[in-house]
Structures are given as C-alpha cells and as structure tokens.
Request: fold
Amino acid sequence: MVISTQGRYTRTAIFLHWLILALLVAQYIVGWTMPHIGRDTPVTTLISLHFSIGVLILGVIVIRLIWRLIHGEPAPEAGVPPWQTRSARVSHWLLYLLLVVVPLLGWINASYRGMPITFFGLAHVPQLVATHDASWRWTGDIHTLIAEYGVLPLVGLHVAAALYHYFVRRDRVLQRMLPGV
Ligand code: HEM
Ligand code: HEM
Reply:
C-alpha cells in the first residue's frame, strides 16, 4: 500500500472523486426516468444516455483506480481510531469494486439484449457478449439490484461517516477530500 506524506488527497484525486459523484447523480436520475427496459424496448434517447454516462463512469473509475494505485492515500488523520481507518479502507475498496461491476453488468446486459451502445453518439461501443446468449440473462436484474441496494446504501454510509467526522469528531477527514481547504 502506498501512503503519501501530505495530509490530503491530490488535486486530481479530489477532482475525480467529485466528478464521479456528479456523474452518479445524473446516472440515477436518468436510470429512474428512462422507460423500463424489457424485451424489444426501443433504445430511446434517455436509455442511450444511460449507456453513455455508464460507460463514462466506468472509464473515470478505471483512471481513478490507476491514479490511486500510483499515488496512494494520505497518511491516516491523527487521532482517528484504527478500526475507523480500517473500515473506511474496506468501504472505499468496496465502492471501487461496485463501480466497476455495476457498469460492466449493465454493458453486458445491453449487449445481451442486442441494444446498440454508443458513447454520446460519437463512437460505437462494442458488444461484450453475443445477443440473446441465455447465460447472460441474469445480468440485468443483478445490475439493477447492486446499483440500488449495494451502491446507494454504501454511499449513504460513506457520506454519514464524512459528516460524523466533520460535525461530531470535528477532525479534518472531510477536508482531505475538499478542494483548496
Ligand atoms: C455506475 C453506472 C450505472 C448505474 C449506477 C446504473 C444504474 C441503473 C439503474 C438504477 C437501473 C434500473 C432502472 C429501472 O428502475 O428500471 C439500471 C438499468 C439498466 N442499466 Fe444501468 N447503470 C449504470 C451503468 C450502465 C451501463 C454502462 C449500461 C450499458 C452500457 C447500463 C445498462 C442498463 C440496462 C440494460 C438496464 C436495464 C436492466 C434490466 O432491467 O434488465 N447501465 N441501471
Ligand atoms: C456528498 C458525498 C460525498 C462525500 C461528502 C464524500 C467524502 C469523502 C471523504 C471525506 C473522503 C476521504 C476519506 C479519507 O480520507 O479517509 C472520501 C473518499 C472516498 N470516496 Fe467519497 N464522498 C462522497 C461521495 C462519494 C461517492 C458518490 C463515491 C463513489 C461511489 C465516493 C467514493 C469514495 C472513495 C472510493 C474514496 C476513497 C478514495 C481513495 O482512498 O482512493 N465518495 N470521500
């Protein structure tokens, strides 16, 4: 594990962290507004937008992970109990994992359904599995399940922890991830 000596994340890590938040907010709004995807559902603009934002999230997460592996994390904030540092680390890696798994499952499911996927209409995104290959039928349900009952509660816990540090412990954990503080 790499630990950087500064007490905060790098500017790039901070930018990518808040970019993911913005993209996720847009993605859930689009995901819950778009028509329910079933057999023979046409790929409307909103559905296409869901695919594009999802592929973008996957790309940004991969860049973030590479950045994280190279630059590490700041040394733990002084005075934070070790169990909190450990559980933060576990939940951060779990968030990274889910943010790779969820878009991949969505991409596989859209491929299985034979739906065209583009990157904001600018580039064609390749199909990951053969159309109607029944072994991938489950991916849609699990994509939605993890997106709604995995990512959201974990992000909720993550935000609660950040607010706990800021308002209750009154340490500088939140400031490590804020630009220019
Ligand atoms: C982090 C990124 C993503 C999140 C948070 C996300 C979230 C969601 C959510 C909440 C739904 C359920 C919508 C409903 O209630 O009907 C959904 C459905 C779906 N998403 Fe995503 N999505 C992501 C990425 C993607 C990507 C990259 C693709 C494809 C390229 C995709 C394809 C689909 C498909 C095909 C469905 C319908 C699944 C089914 O009901 O069988 N998603 N997504
Ligand atoms: C209002 C929303 C959010 C707040 C206030 C927040 C706050 C923070 C803070 C303070 C840290 C640094 C923790 C530390 O130094 O130990 C952090 C790290 C992190 N956050 Fe968030 N966050 C938010 C949303 C999100 C979202 C939506 C995601 C992704 C789903 C996310 C994923 C992560 C990850 C993976 C790290 C670890 C960074 C690393 O070590 O590479 N956060 N967040």
Notes: The radius of gyration is 18 Å.
